């Protein structure tokens, strides 16, 4: 176990058994002695890792206010093991829950604010449902950044070209260029089929906690109408939706980061 530049402990846990076992990299940043604020859990997006701007800024916020920060890389991402093409929502959710369970044991985590970006917003919503079954941890709030719940069935499948459908049928995957890096995004049939089993936009979503959604209106990947639809499904919760008129999908500009951190700190400080 070692400390990284943010004072977090770099560690690994094994998730899964047999051929499905994979090493998951975590950065666990303890709370200051006596601090009672909710701990901040970062849930990254598709192909992002814990060295990303928003993840690092969230950890820095936690250090400033004295609470704990919990970050990790999904399998096939960053420093974690496992193949990216084996990734599914169920698999990455399993890893998120395992990391939170580890934080309960090692950091004394009892209350958390889940901060989910893009796909991480979907995983946060699924995690809430699973964590509600536990008696040793409470969800203090959700911060959802350009959330992409059900993106496989809502945003990918309806827009597949014939060539992409053929590639899925024949090769089990297709590639799509991305402006966020030199390598294309890879979408697998396994991911799409598993996504159908993890849909949340099928009825009322009951989180039992305050939710703050931040969405860019110039987002080319997740239309802002998707955030509005999500808000409608969160009909029983205290929900704030912040629309950023010129915001893109990443929401990583200083002014965007400031809004994200304000939302996270506000929820962390709730009694």
Notes on the structure:
This protein has helices at residues 53-65, 89-106, 119-131, 151-156, 162-171, 189-197, 224-233, 254-268; strands at residues 2-3, 9-15, 22-29, 39-43, 69-72, 111-117, 138-145, 173-176, 185-188, 211-216, 239-244. The chain is an alpha/beta fold and 271 residues long. Helix 1 (53-65) packs across helix 8 and helix 2 packs across helix 3 (119-131). Strand 8 and strand 9 (185-188) form a beta hairpin. Mean pLDDT is 95; it is low at 1-5. Strands 1-2-3-5-4-6-7-10-11 form a nine-stranded mixed beta sheet, with helices on both faces.
- Strand content is 15-25%
Give the distance, in angstroms, between the N- and C-terminal Cα atoms. 33 Å
Low-pLDDT runs: 1-5
| Average pLDDT | 95
Rg estimate, integer Å: 18 Å
Strand order of the largest sheet: 1-2-3-5-4-6-7-10-11
Tally the beta strands.
11
Give a quick account of the main beta sheet: strands, pairing sense, barrel closure: 9 strands, mixed
- Per the principal axes of the C-alpha atoms, what is the gross shape? globular
The proportion of residues forming helix, as a percent range, comes to: 25-40%
